[in-house]
Amino acid sequence: MTPVFIGSEIYRGSSYGAAHPLHIPRVSTVMDLVRALGWLGPEQYRTSPRAKPAALTGFHTPAYINALEKAEATQAVDEGAFARHALGTTANPVFPEMFRRPATGAGGVMLAAELVADGGVVHVPGGGTHHAMADRANGFCYLNDPVLCLLALRRLGLTRIAYIDIDAHHADGVEAALGGADDMLLVSIHEENRWPFTGKLDDTGGGRSYNLPVPRGFNDTEMAHVLHRLILPLLAQFDPQAVVLQSGSDAILEDPLSRLALSNNAHTEVALALRDASPRLIALGGGGYNPWSVARCWTRVWGALNGQEVSGELPTPAQAILQNLTWNRRGPAWQVQPHWIATLNDPPRPGPMRPELTDSVDYLRKRAGLPRAVHLAQVSARA
Fold first, then answer.
1. Which whole-number Å values give the CA distances from 305 to 113, 184, 235, 267, 269, in the listed order?
2. DSSP line for 196-260
3. 138 to each of 16, 53, 102, 131, 284, how far by Cα in Å?
4. Residue 372 has pLDDT above 90, yes or no
5. Smallest Cα–Cα separation from 293: which of 11, 40, 45, 29?
């Protein structure tokens, strides 16, 4: 199947509010870039449907969905909805599309599950809201579309489904929902001692959840080690029929909400490796709060999955899209860098392999029953 891109115009101009980290354009910029680059044939694009309330209650409670719809309609939250469902908070504020926007993301990932029924690759950059709980909003997330995607794949009759999350923040909502499921493998790579302060190394989620908290400054060299020594061996052992990748770009060096140091080369390598590890891949978006970093990262992921690559300077129309982005958080430490405009490719960000990271990987390998011996030459060759 030719890779499919699922997007929507609802993301254009929709914002959580001027003071919120998600005031920035993200999915709409990716849509514009892939079209400017000629990477999106008309047969590849699907407009995301909006999930109906009945479909959302496959995971979320009816009371929560009703409260979310009511909050959008009235643009207000009563004390009960605030206390029970965490709506109207600083993290999850009231805004005009607060039901329609996440319901569109949810509809997109459920459509993606249908599209990969017979195999294939689908990119849904509007998905990846991995913090929402069944009965409440959480961490900028109103609906948990990764969970809805995994449940949709299960309804296809699949019995081995893997979820890999490389966002800077722990996939707490996904683990709470499906961490104990026998038919799921959940792997979350996230910054240690970072909100939501869950996902400790010894946290099993009640089942097949593997959590790897990584230290500040987590670099491309270390990500390659994690990919080849942990993620891919776990997938080989599990033999998934489908993989869902949450490719949050907030682990990239320039993102303001983490202290990790990846380049978008790491995201591309992970996406390609996971594509080759399963007959079905659904690649979601996720976190990402620097408008240039997130747009360039997810555009690169789509390009790689679609067999496209641009190694030099971007053509003028693509550069113009990036040139016109603005960011009201930008200060002296966040000045626009020339490569943010000129190219999709971040400079590689190699670094030291820290023993605390390799020890954590070895701990999880041992828990999974994987061989302990480390073949550094093979790791270096594949990295």
1. 17, 24, 19, 11, 10
2. T----TT--TTTTEEEEEE-TT--HHHHHHHIIIIIHHHHHHH--SEEEEE--GGGBTT-TT---
3. 14, 19, 13, 5, 18
4. no
5. 29
Please confirm, yes or no, whether 131 is among the known catalytic residues: yes
Give the integer Cα–Cα distance in Å for 286 and 246.
Answer: 6
**DSSP for residue 133:** B
pLDDT at residue 309, as a whole number? 82
> Quick one: which of 69, 34, 64 has its CA closest to 50?
69
Residue pLDDT, tens place only, 282-315: 999 999 999 999 999 999 999 999 999 878 899 9
Of the chain, the end-to-end C-alpha distance in Å amounts to: 28
Extract the tokens encoding 83: 């206390």
Residue with tokens 């390998």: 365
CA–CA separation, 107 and 61 (whole Å): 17
Dihedral sign of CA atoms 364, 289, 140, 65 in order: negative
Quick one: CA torsion of 288, 289, 290, 295, rounded to 10 degrees? 40
How large is the greatest C-alpha to C-alpha distance in the chain, in angstroms?
A: 61
What amino acid occupies position 48?
Answer: S
Alpha-carbon span 48 to 69, nearest angstrom: 19
Cβ neighbors of 253 (< 8 A, separation 6 or more) are 260, 261, 262, 263, 346, 349
Burial of 263 (0-12, 13-18, 19+ CB in 10 A): buried
Q: Which residues are paired to 283 by β-bridges?
A: 123, 245
Catalytic residue among 85, 123, 131, 190: 131
Structure tokens at 354: 């820290």
pLDDT band at 328 (very low <50, low <70, confident <90, very high): confident
β-strands 242-246, 280-284: how paired?
parallel
Check: CB of residue 169 under 8 Å from CB of residue 196.
yes
Q: How far apart are CA 240 and CA 16, in angstroms?
A: 36
Q: Identify the CA nearest to 274 among candidates 327, 313, 231, 323.
A: 231
| C-alpha–C-alpha distance, residues 255 and 134, integer Å | 28
Rounded to whole angstroms, the Cα distance separating 6 from 133 reads 24
Query: CA 215, CA 7: separation in Å to the nearest integer?
Result: 34
The CA-atom distances, in angstroms, between 12 and each of 34, 40, 42 are 15, 18, 20
